[in-house]
Amino acid sequence: MYLHPDLETLTRRDLEGLQLERLRRTVALAATTPFYGPRLAAAGIGPESIRSLADLRNIPLTSKDDLRRSYPRGMLAAPQEDVVRLHASSGTTGKPTVIFHTAHDLDAWTGLVARSLYAAGMRRHDVFQNMMTYGLFTGGLGLHYGAERVGMLVIPASSGNTRRQVQLIQDFGTTAVHITPSYALHLAQEVLQFGVADPRELGLKFAVMGAEPYSVGTARKIEAAFGVQVFNCYGLSEMNGPAVAFECAERGGMHLWEDNFILEILDPETLQALPDGAKGELVLTTVNRTGMPILRYRTKDLTRILPEPCPCGRVHRRIERILGRTDDMLIIGGVNVFPSQVEHVLMELPEVGSTYQIVLTKEDCLDRMTVKVELRDPAFTGDLAQLHALQKRIEHELKSALLITCRVKLVEPGDIPPSQGKAVRVVDERGEL
Amino acid sequence: MLIPQLSIFVQDKVGRVGEICALLAARQVNIAGFDIADTTEGFGILHLVVDRTDLALKALQEQHIVAKNAPVICVRLENRPGQLARVLELLSQAKFSIQYMYLGSDNNMFIGTDRNEEAAVLLSEADFRMLHAHDLVPGAE
């Protein structure tokens, strides 16, 4: 039941010993980078000052802003020739964040994904259909190589095109899928159109679900619809991507792979450490990454550590499903979107004001984003064709900045209530997922 | 040879057009022509020809309503068969593209084309009666 028994079932003491050794190496490596070099020197921290894991707390926290400021190579710790891949996410104000991986890093990440899928019960005879978008986003390639390492037949289907997804499942006997919860609900409805009377006829056994937060209720609904077991998967591109934490066959919280990451839960206001069991912001340190080590990264995700040992016997502590965010990030169809990105696009367009409202709704189980913008008087020529062209242009600009399709609705000045933070800028009518 | 016309951006909202009309009524503005170009996108354009365009425009803009003066062709049609057909024939022969048209009071046909000035000259030379701004002012007739 363990793919890496030595790394999954070692004692807490041995795990912490491994973490300390790896943390020292990580700090030494980070100190060579343009970003961390001066920062660690200013804090008087070097590998020798890390005598115990508790010394981690003396290291300054790293934020997404720090990643953006050091774009593109400020945190790169490896020589360019040792870097073999990068992944990037769209930035909050146009500038993306990038993560570099060496061959070692990809091998380690692939190992974590493989270990996770194996823990869920997938084996080499399974057929794994990856319905996540391939590309700069980590959900495609990350799971792909991990599933291959388990020895499964992997179908790189990518997202969308329901007809083709159904055909692939039927033709190749797919047993496991990697899917967003909203697409799973959509698929359950749509299969009827393709001659499948009951989604259970598809013969799926496992559904790996991540990229969007969802409730236990939604997981149970998807399990009932397809006759599958749902496994919750947590990750973020800054920490590789999927399989930072993963549910084992017990499905009682996600084991966070502590041989690769050191986890802390901090009070997001005071930044003080919270005891196991208390809800707070998840802060992660990579301890097995050589291309781009990141120290004490504020994920902005709220969760808590489940202190009780898991019956599966793994030493890695479990975190609860993500309970929310400490910032205003939205997750739309699995893609992370910050309202500031929308604002940034609108500021470049003289025809509309900077007042906007994002309205999120569900259509056939899928997320739909509408952006309301106020037309500005000086730009109006009285011509309907001009308004249509303007609308299309804003939709196009938003799509290139956010990487998702949204609808633009032109409204009269004063229609949008004056913005007083997130509450007014974003109207989320999607209901709980 | 064009007459002033209010082109008003309106959102699809119950009662919105009524509010705009009430606003103009309160200023004693008389409406001589009215048209709504609707879209499926949640907004439309309201065209109004009124007796006192400047006053109406100011009243609308004070309420932060997005409006412009977009001059339009106005031709008075005689009340007999073939008049409208002849207007359209002339315009199409000269390759004008008609964007919208609507009928107002007193058989006044309002036409918006891609080249309004030229189209008005064409119709005038064909002896159609073209209306001017002062024709719409109360008591002008």
Strand content of chain B: 25-35%
Per DSSP E runs of 2 or more residues, the count of β-strands of chain B stands at: 8
Largest interface: A-B, 19 and 21 residues
Helix content of chain B: 25-40%
Q: Helix tally of chain B?
A: 4
> Per the principal axes of the C-alpha atoms, what is the gross shape of chain B?
globular
The count of helical stretches of chain A stands at: 12
The side-by-side strand order for the widest beta sheet of chain B comes to 2-3-1-4
Characterize the main sheet of chain B: 4 strands, antiparallel
Succession of helices and strands of chain B: EHEEHEEHEEHE
| The level-1 CATH class of the largest domain in chain A | Alpha Beta
Order of strands across the main sheet of chain A:
4-3-5-6-7-8-9-14-13
Q: Brief description of this entry?
A:
The complex is a heterodimer of chains A (433) and B (141). Chain A is of the alpha/beta class.
Overall description:
The complex is a heterodimer of chains A (433) and B (141). Chain A is α/β, with parallel strands linked by helices and 433 residues long. Chain A folds into 2 domains: 1-53 and 66-254, Rossmann fold; 332-428, GMP Synthetase, Chain A, domain 3 (2-Layer Sandwich). Chain A has 12 helices and 21 strands. In chain A, α5 crosses α6, α8 runs parallel beside α9 and α10 (339-347) packs across α11 (384-402). The radius of gyration of chain A is 23 Å and the shape is globular. Chain A starts with a helix and ends in a 5-residue tail after the last strand. The model of chain A has no long low-confidence stretch (mean pLDDT 92). Chain B has 2 domains: 6-69, VC0802-like (2-Layer Sandwich), CATH 3.30.2130; 73-136, Alpha-Beta Plaits, CATH 3.30.70.260. Chain B has helices at residues 16-26, 53-62, 83-93, 116-125, and strands at residues 6-11, 31-38, 43-50, 67-69, 73-76, 98-103, 108-113, 129-130. In chain B, 30% of the residues lie in helices and 30% in strands. A 4-stranded antiparallel beta sheet of chain B has the order 2-3-1-4, with helices on one face. In chain B, strands 6-7-5-8 form a 4-stranded antiparallel beta sheet, with helices on one face. Chain B has 141 residues and is of the alpha+beta class. Chains A and B meet through α11 and β20 of A and β1, β3 and β4 of B.
